[in-house]
Amino acid sequence: MFIVAVDVGGTFADFIVCDEGGCAATAKIPSSIENPLQPIIRGLNELAEQFNIPLEEFLAQTEKFTHGTTVGINALLQGQGAKTALITTEGFRDALELRRSRLNEQWDFSVSLPSVLVPRHLRIGLRERMDYRGVSVKPVDRTQIPMLAEFLRQEEVEAVAVCLLFACRNPKHEVEFKEHLQELLPNVFVTLSSELSSQLGEYERTSTTVLNARLSPILGNYLQDLRAHLRAKGLRVPISIAQNNGGLTDLTQAGRRAVNTLFSGPAGGVKGGWILAREQGLSDLVVGDMGGTSFDVSLIRQGMMELTPQAEIAGYPVQLPMLNIHTVGAGGGSIAWLDKGGMLKVGPQSAGAKPGPACYELGGQEPTITDAALIMGLIDDRSFLGGRMVLNKELAYASIEKNIAKPLGLSVPEAAYAIYQVALSLMADAVYLMTVKKGYDPRSFALAAVGGALPLFATALAKGVGIRQVVVPELAPVFCAQGLFHSNFQFEGLRNLYEVLGEVPFLSWSKAMLELRFQADEELSRLGVGEDQREYRWSADLKYPDQHHEINIPVRGIVSDPEIWPQLAKEFHEAHERLYGYCQPEKSLVLVNLRLVAQEKERLPQSAMDPRIEESFINANSIAGENNTALPTSIEMKMVYLHGGFRKVEVFHWKDLRNGMDLRGPALIKKEYTTILLEENCQAKLDEAKNLIINIGKDRH
């Protein structure tokens, strides 16, 4: 029997499969925005061929199929989506356009804002009112609903987002409106803010609901097509879809809540990083994932994945908990260009898989990071994608010469190296944003270099930010798919309380707790997770009375015991001191939200972490097989442009490496779907799990 994980990114689709014996096979296929099903079928065919069986037999023997998708985020970035109307409380229809008064560039009033996703004539006020306590002040005017439905029918609206004032405290009016509207418009997709988020924040909640309404019909249609195609090819098991929080859900739920899948693929990378940290005994790990479109960075901090209560995607707030991932436009297909002042820039525009970089010979005219790496000698023209694609070096040379080198008065290799350095600086800034700006010292972290492109930059990036150790996993090129392998079903729920901590009525606390537990158990039962396979994590969002933002504090002990409140207060003050440099223990605290994460129990490899060992890095001298100090045979010497000139470096192949073999930079290590660059003063060894451990030395200059 097989377990299959498929991660479809913006440029490549990654595949990994394991059989009963633990044998893994991988594939990497260019993705297609126009026809996202095509690369999935191609990749599955390739996996079946590696096991020497037909696709139908391969799928019939598959017992678990997990999928990370970019269909939702691609539709958002391309301005696609269902024609959507927004129903709000009367008098509040412009909240979506008014946004918040905050600007990302507070001194630049010329910065363009993202377009309003629902035009004003499709934003309609409903006569009803709920007060801030969740008490109905004015009931829903049912006589308005038939007229409203007729207007939506005439406008050929495909989806309706409903976000009523204070529905986060009491969803009764939203639920009532949806029931009546769907009787009149049964074929229109309707989503409620209370189904997605119970947090305060009218604009953020409205934005989240509108995004879900626009994107869910598109994702739902894609998932139904995927299920039909794979069933026709022999798949018999349900398809599980990755969510922003690193957990899984089924096709039904994913099709109704597309906004939960916007970071579906990158979340697999964070999950994979968490597994890697456990295996290697690393408490702090920077997970850097560079594919064809972007560079994603996330943290494993004190052995835990970092979550954020909300995020901003393409300029739109999403008020849902998700793994904390920072993305910059620095992938292999990111385009190099000159601004009006003649300054070299890289990204965020990407050439994608088609037309792709100039060297792909698919019509791309603009130079990319991949073109620069080819000119520098970092990648081969005949071994790209495991030899499945031949790159045209002449086209890469011509593109860089025309667009970058000549305007800047540089040679083509100098221009290629400049592109490499600008991309490197973008990555370093992203790592600093996730570490230094949060008060973390990057020198205490190791770096997991994953994705098809980051191993070319990893040692230079580590040197630049002060990281002393890099781990390149054996399956680095398909790492997000590998992370999906270990993901499990997960439910997240929230109840808004907004009471002074210690003065919360026990009835309110118990009611919120019981409702969340019931909702979680109902969802996990629907997903087929048995009662003995469930685990629960409670937490509370707390803040000082005059603050806008909360800090999430884990609830330790018995949730129903009010005696936990002093402990929550103590941990909040400690967290506030750590994050902001001060605390005010004399102040009362506001309990804003109670949260529950319920999930299928983790099936994890044994952690290598020993609490008695303070040093979190792997000692290069303690890697298994240290006595095997023989060097692998280099397969060639190659001219590579580094630090201002071409120089000869040895080239090794990953398959020739053995435990304990000591490699020193500068060198290149070729692997199917990726190449690792060892900079000067770097030492690399392979560990027992076939991960490459690179220790970063100090430069002499």
UniProtKB/TrEMBL annotation:
InterPro entries assigned: ACX-like_C, Hydant_A_N, Hydantoinase_A, Oxoprolinase-like
GO cellular component, one term: cytosol
Acetophenone carboxylase-like C-terminal domain mapped to chain residues: 511-690
One annotated GO molecular function: 5-oxoprolinase (ATP-hydrolyzing) activity
Biological processes per GO annotation: glutathione metabolic process
Protein name from the UniProt record: N-methylhydantoinase A
Domain Hydantoinase A/oxoprolinase intervals: 205-488
Family matches, as Pfam families: Hydant_A_C, Hydant_A_N, Hydantoinase_A
Hydantoinase/oxoprolinase N-terminal domain mapped to chain residues: 4-184
Organism of this sequence: Desulfosporosinus hippei DSM 8344
